[in-house]
Design brief:
mainly alpha, 2 domains
């Protein structure tokens, strides 16, 4: 009889022990270890930051592509519509520079799977239309004034890329473009000043 009681007690403790072990294992599986939780949080944070960086790069690329397309079109217009040699030269400079820029932008956008504009924006179409309707005497000043403003916008966009983007291709491209844009800005300012003087003489 004592042997039976002892055996039953042994079985009882064994069952209880198994239940405790099972519950412990289940808890471990149910609740991740602290290091796993921190790892998951870190990965989620990294994913969110990568998404934000990609969206910022997309905004930069789209903005610059719109500027490039507009500058190419306006530069071509100046070459055919301007009466002043230096304005036609500025128009050619704008066309060549922004054509090269657009090629680089397309390559970067393709690499990052980002879609960029391939046609003029409504604002650019409106600007082109208004400029094309200018008289010969008023065109040069109006064109140079637009070039001053657009070059400042382009410079601001590229300077933001240098500060905010982590993409090496974009940083390298912006670094190479900025000196040329600043040179074009100075040229546009000089053209605007000369165009104003010319219009006052007539």
């Amino acid at each position: 009889m004592k042997a039976i009681i002892y055996l039953n007690s042994t079985l009882w403790f064994s069952v209880v022990g198994c239940l405790i072990m099972f519950d412990f294992i289940s808890c471990n599986n149910r609740y991740p270890r602290p290091d796993e939780s921190f790892s998951n949080i870190y990965q989620a944070k990294e994913t969110a930051l990568d998404h934000i960086a990609l969206e910022n790069d997309k905004e930069f690329l789209v903005n610059v592509a719109e500027i490039d397309l507009e500058e190419i079109k306006l530069g071509q217009l100046a070459q055919h519509h301007s009466q002043q040699y230096e304005v036609r030269v500025l128009g050619k400079m704008m066309e060549v520079l922004h054509y090269k820029s657009l090629i680089n932008i397309k390559a970067i956008a393709k690499k990052k799977s980002i879609s960029i504009p391939t046609a003029l924006s409504n604002r650019a179409i409106d600007t082109y239309s208004k400029l094309n309707k200018q008289s010969k005497s008023d065109f040069d000043f109006a064109f140079c004034n637009i070039m001053v403003l657009s070059n400042k916008d382009a410079i601001d966009s590229l300077e933001k890329i240098l500060v905010e983007s982590n993409d090496l291709d974009m940083i390298q491209w912006a670094t190479l473009m900025l000196p040329a844009l600043r040179s074009n800005l100075n040229q546009a300012i000089a053209c605007k000043r000369n165009a104003r003087s010319s219009s006052l003489r007539y």
